[in-house]
Write a structure and sequence with these properties.
The structure holds 2 protein chains of 2 kinds. Chain A contains 6 helices and 10 strands. Chain A is an alpha+beta fold. In chain A, helix 2 crosses helix 3, helix 4 runs antiparallel to helix 5 and helix 5 packs across helix 6. By secondary structure, chain B is of the alpha+beta class. Helices cover 29% and strands 26% of the residues of chain B. In chain B, strands 1, 4, 5, 6, 7, 8, 9 and 10 form an 8-stranded antiparallel beta sheet that branches. A 5-stranded antiparallel beta sheet of chain B has the order 11-2-3-12-13. Chain B has one domain: Glutamine Phosphoribosylpyrophosphate, subunit 1, domain 1, CATH 3.60.20. The chains are: A alpha+beta, B alpha+beta. Chain B: It is found in: Cytoplasm; Nucleus.
Chain lengths: 282, 282
């Protein structure tokens, strides 16, 4: 990198003459060392998965969760510096709560991504702080139904809360990825961390952005997510697969962000390992 | 010039006259809520062998005016408990939003009952790491929390003007039923009623479940019938009641809440024999 010795990388909020912020670029490097995280937005929900690298045999299996719930219908997974991620999650929960306080309704995934994008971007502006060493994937399912207002006492107007265009669908699965610069886009499938190249290549093969919306079902997406984490994994290290999912109210999670049930996770792991072995034989 | 600093910056007495101290309301101590405004009447509940039944009508009165007739006064919590509110409806709304916040805080530990129930071996892997129902906020915990909250508000001389029944299960997964009122007083009994129900419904319920042993023999259908009978008596004799009501049954499988029940088989024959008030001339 050309930044070394030029002095333009010594502080945040200083541009180099060719228009780069080196501190942000170094933060991206920190992300690239973290365990792979992916998110898949499919027909009837969102799946989040992470390759949790086991750094010590003294750590209790399945404890120390890496995927966090922000609101009932929202989950966050991140790669990079875990304490930075924890702080990100804490802030996201505060934002979701503040939204509910103000509007008496759950925050949409897009609004949360926007607020958190703004928050991360603020950490690229000042001398006194450093950028977040994480890339976060935010997944959620915004209810497609008419939701009661929080604390609603009666049944409300028969026409519902309003603001809906007839004949248009509202809500649905959503997936966003936020980078250390504060940049965020909505994605069909998102990957970050060490194995992101391999994971992205695999995600591109899935039917996620077809003309009638994604064709992949939630259960298939769980299996693909497990397979992709196994594909992206660098063999000589121990890891644990952690997965969560979010469906609509009539789906398996009833609109909540929840851990994938053990039976389905084990099945997905079995299929992932099988696919891995078949590839080895070829 | 007036050289007394205490006179500076004030309207001059020689032009405007002396300040009228009555605009400062120093006529008594600071007062918070002195009486409820929009109110709900009785909530009744009875334990049976595998759970608790609770009911409350759908009326919110403004004084003696039947102001709102579609008010939901039974609120499920985490799909494991039910909270019934008598008294001030706006305070109920405040508490409901507060409990909603509490429920979201609970979901941060994202082992969920429904995901665990969906998987065949729901008890999770390697012991207590995952969803032991004992680790979740149960009705007994919720009641303790509410009683502390109500007592604290009473000590602030700013009470939440409610009588609350909490039904669900305790730590030993036994049916749980307890009440707390605006003073923070708590009661627990096989059957409980607030407001007018304490006079009119409680004796009827005691006939069926005077002791815990009696309650443990009661079937679900018997308990539901007792509650429906009590709702009918309350509608006959309580002038602030309605024939539309909500009924909730809490069992180990969750909360079944039906919010639009109609009182059936009413008989007003007894009314003819009532003498002494009303429009009769005799």
């Amino acid at each position: 990198m050309t930044s070394i010795g030029t002095g333009y990388d010594l502080a945040n909020s200083i541009f180099s003459p060719d228009g780069r912020n080196f501190q942000v670029e170094y933060a991206v490097k920190a992300v690239e060392n973290g365990g792979t995280s992916i998110g898949i937005r499919c027909k009837d929900g969102v799946v989040l998965a992470v390759e949790k690298l086991v750094t010590s045999k003294l750590l209790k299996p399945h404890a120390n969760k890496r995927i966090a719930t922000v609101d009932r219908h929202l989950g966050v997974v991140y790669s990079g510096m875990i304490p930075d991620g924890r702080h990100f999650v804490e802030r996201a929960r505060d934002e979701a709560r503040a939204w509910r306080d103000t509007f008496k309704t759950p925050i949409s995934t897009a609004d949360l991504a926007s607020r958190m994008g703004g928050y991360m971007q603020a950490y690229t502006l000042y001398q006194s702080v450093r950028p977040f060493g994480i890339t976060a994937i935010v997944g959620g399912f915004d209810s497609t139904r008419e939701l009661p207002v929080d604390g609603e006492v009666g049944s409300g107007p028969a026409c519902g809360a309003g603001g809906k265009v007839p004949g248009k669908s509202h809500g649905g699965p959503a997936l966003y990825m936020i980078e250390p610069s504060g940049l965020y886009w909505g994605y069909y499938g998102a990957a970050t961390g060490k194995g992101r190249q391999a994971a992205k290549a695999e995600l591109e093969k899935l039917d996620l952005g077809g003309p009638g919306g994604p064709a992949l079902s939630l259960e298939e997406a769980v299996k693909e997510a497990a397979r992709i984490i196994y594909v992206a994994h660098d063999d000589d290290k121990e890891f644990e697969l952690e997965m969560t999912w979010i469906s609509d109210v009539d789906g398996p999670t009833k609109g909540l962000h929840q851990e994938v049930p053990k039976a389905l996770r084990e099945e997905a792991k079995r299929l992932a390992k099988k696919a891995q072995e078949e590839k080895m034989e070829e | 010039m007036d050289h007394r600093p205490q006179a500076w910056g004030r309207p001059r007495d020689d032009i405007y006259g002396a300040y009228d101290g009555s605009y400062l309301q120093n006529s008594g101590p600071k007062t918070a809520t002195q009486s409820p405004v929009v109110t709900g009447t009785s909530v009744i509940a009875i334990k049976f062998k595998d759970g608790v039944v609770m009911a409350a009508d759908n009326l919110a009165s403004y004084g003696s005016l039947a102001r709102f007739t579609d008010v939901k006064r039974l609120r499920p919590f985490l799909d494991t408990s039910i909270v019934g509110f008598g008294g001030d409806v706006s305070d109920m709304q405040f508490l409901d939003r507060h409990l909603n916040e509490l429920a979201i805080d609970e979901s941060y530990e994202h082992e969920s009952t429904s995901a665990a129930a969906a998987s065949p071996e729901g008890q999770g892997e390697q012991g207590a790491a995952t969803s032991a129902p004992a680790g979740k906020l149960n009705a007994a915990n919720l009641h303790k929390y509410l009683s502390k909250l109500m007592y604290r508000r009473r000590n602030d001389f700013d009470p939440l003007w409610n009588q609350i029944l909490v039904a669900g299960f305790d730590g030993q997964t036994k049916p749980f039923l307890a009440s707390v009122d605006l003073r923070g007083t708590t009661f627990s009994s096989p059957s409980l009623a607030t407001g007018f129900g304490a006079m009119l419904a409680q004796p009827i319920m005691r006939k069926y479940a005077a002791t815990e042993e009696d309650a443990a023999r009661l079937t679900r259908d018997e308990a539901v019938n007792v509650v429906k009978e009590c709702m009918k008596v309350l509608f006959y004799r309580d002038a602030r009641s309605l024939d539309r009501y909500s009924i909730a049954v809490v069992t180990k499988d969750g909360v079944e809440l039906s919010e639009n029940e109609q009182l059936e088989k009413q008989s007003w024959a007894f009314a003819e024999r009532i003498r002494g008030y009303g429009t009769q001339t005799v």
